[in-house]
């Protein structure tokens, strides 16, 4: 039985490489009990290739924040004015001429319910997004620059409005700064202490401007963007492998990083701007009905994807974890994820 599954998995992954958008891919799939394990690469990537995991980093940041809460150094209800002066925050969140910046909570940052705009994907006064600029050349966006850029954009709703969420990198950039303020440590040292060292992730690190990792593809063009990835920080700056990401993902969902009593807090889903994705606390969910899905059956998956074609999800219905990348900005990984999961039917 396992052999037939492996054959199907191999076939699906190999077909992914079209040399038009997908030139390399890595996938790691493991069962919750560890009895099934399959890792495979195709195209120009190897199973141990280090790649930018992009927004999967947000789950690492979430684990850090929840651990700080567990240690009694932070609460979900703490507001921004506990960490930053009102002068510093002024103009960050203005909605219908009223300022809300200081009232944003830790929970709202974790769940993208702040209403803050996204400085990376929304157009500035010149009609360009940060991603547009990055496609042209490697471009650093420091936290201070991202904060100022956010202040030039319009907020989407009052923070904490019931049922409202808008995915924005600045939410997790702010969480990273808060973690640094609380611990009096740099972000890379925080990840090392809370996650990388305890889990013995030998191929995982926070990107720096001199870091080397697999080029990211935009259609047929490979992009080397160390400045861009290094400046992503707490919202998207980690470099890792599929195996290390698997170790992290399983630890996240099995109580090895923080107590399982915090899990109910994570599952508070709201729609974000990319249908059918929803966001909880530090993680996303893809759940499609039979009528919606071209990949039926399309079971619920929870975890995170990244803008570079990365993915790290848990599928409760199949008791499977899946991590990896298609290493392409201009293509979603969800079709591959579901085709692979459906090999287990």
Account of the 3D structure:
The chain has 345 residues and is an alpha+beta fold. The chain folds into 2 domains: 2-57 and 204-344, Beta-lactamase; 58-191, Beta-lactamase. The protein is 33% helix and 17% strand. It is built from 12 helices and 15 strands. It has helices spanning 2-16, 57-70, 86-89, 106-111, 130-136, 143-151, 169-183, 187-196, 226-236, 242-253, 263-266, 334-341, and strands at 24-31, 37-43, 51-52, 94-95, 98-99, 205-206, 216-218, 221-223, 238-240, 270-271, 277-279, 284-286, 301-305, 310-315, 320-325. The strands form 4 sheets. Strands 2-1-15-14-13-12-11-10 form an 8-stranded antiparallel beta sheet, sandwiched between helices. A 3-stranded antiparallel beta sheet has the order 3-9-6. α2 (57-70) packs across α8, α2 packs parallel to α9 (226-236) and α7 crosses α9 (226-236).
Q: Based on DSSP secondary structure assignment, what is the total number of beta strands?
A: 15
Task: Tell me the Rg in angstroms.
Answer: 19 Å
N/C terminus separation: 11 Å
Per the principal axes of the C-alpha atoms, what is the gross shape? globular
Share of helix, binned? 25-40%
| CATH 4th-level superfamily of the largest domain | DD-peptidase/beta-lactamase superfamily
CATH architectural name of the largest domain: 3-Layer(aba) Sandwich
- How would a textbook summarize the main sheet? 8 strands, antiparallel
SS strand fraction: 15-25%
Instruction: Give the oligomer, counting copies of the same chain as homo and different chains as hetero.
Output: single chain
CATH class of the largest domain, please? Alpha Beta
Domain Beta-lactamase-related: 33-328
Keywords: Hydrolase
Organism: Clostridium malenominatum
Protein name: Beta-lactamase-related domain-containing protein
């Amino acid at each position: 039985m396992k052999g037939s599954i492996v054959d199907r998995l191999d076939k699906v992954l190999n077909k992914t490489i079209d040399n038009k958008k997908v030139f390399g891919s890595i996938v790691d799939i493991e069962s919750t009990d560890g009895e099934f394990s399959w890792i495979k690469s195709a195209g120009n990537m190897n199973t141990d290739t280090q790649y930018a995991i992009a927004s999967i980093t947000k789950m690492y940041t979430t684990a850090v924040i929840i651990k700080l809460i567990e240690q009694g150094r932070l609460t979900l209800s703490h507001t921004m004015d506990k960490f930053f002066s009102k002068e510093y925050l002024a103009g960050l969140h203005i909605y219908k001429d009223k300022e809300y910046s200081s009232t944003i909570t830790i929970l709202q940052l974790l769940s993208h319910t702040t209403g803050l705009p996204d400085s990376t994907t929304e157009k500035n006064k010149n009609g360009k997004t940060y991603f547009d600029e990055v496609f042209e050349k490697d471009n650093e966006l420091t936290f201070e620059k991202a904060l100022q850029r956010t202040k030039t954009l319009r907020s989407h709703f009052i923070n904490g409005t019931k049922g409202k969420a808008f995915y924005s990198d600045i939410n997790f950039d702010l969480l990273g700064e808060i973690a640094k303020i609380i611990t009096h440590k740099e972000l890379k040292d925080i990840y090392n202490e809370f996650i990388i060292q305890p889990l013995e992730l030998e191929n995982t690190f926070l990107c720096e401007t001199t870091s080397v990792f697999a080029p990211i593809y935009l259609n047929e063009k490979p992009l080397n963007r160390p400045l861009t990835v290094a400046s992503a920080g707490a919202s998207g700056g980690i470099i890792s492998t599929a195996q290390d990401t698997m170790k992290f993902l399983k630890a996240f969902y099995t109580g090895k990083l923080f107590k399982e009593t915090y899990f109910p807090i994570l599952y508070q889903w709201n729609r974000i701007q990319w249908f059918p994705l929803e966001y909880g606390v530090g993680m996303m969910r893809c759940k499609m009905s039979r009528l919606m899905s071209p990949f039926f059956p399309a079971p619920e998956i929870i975890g995170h994807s990244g803008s570079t074609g990365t993915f790290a999800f848990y599928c409760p219905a199949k008791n499977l974890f899946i991590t990896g990348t298609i290493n392409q900005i201009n293509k979603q990984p969800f079709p591959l994820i579901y085709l692979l999961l459906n090999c287990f039917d």
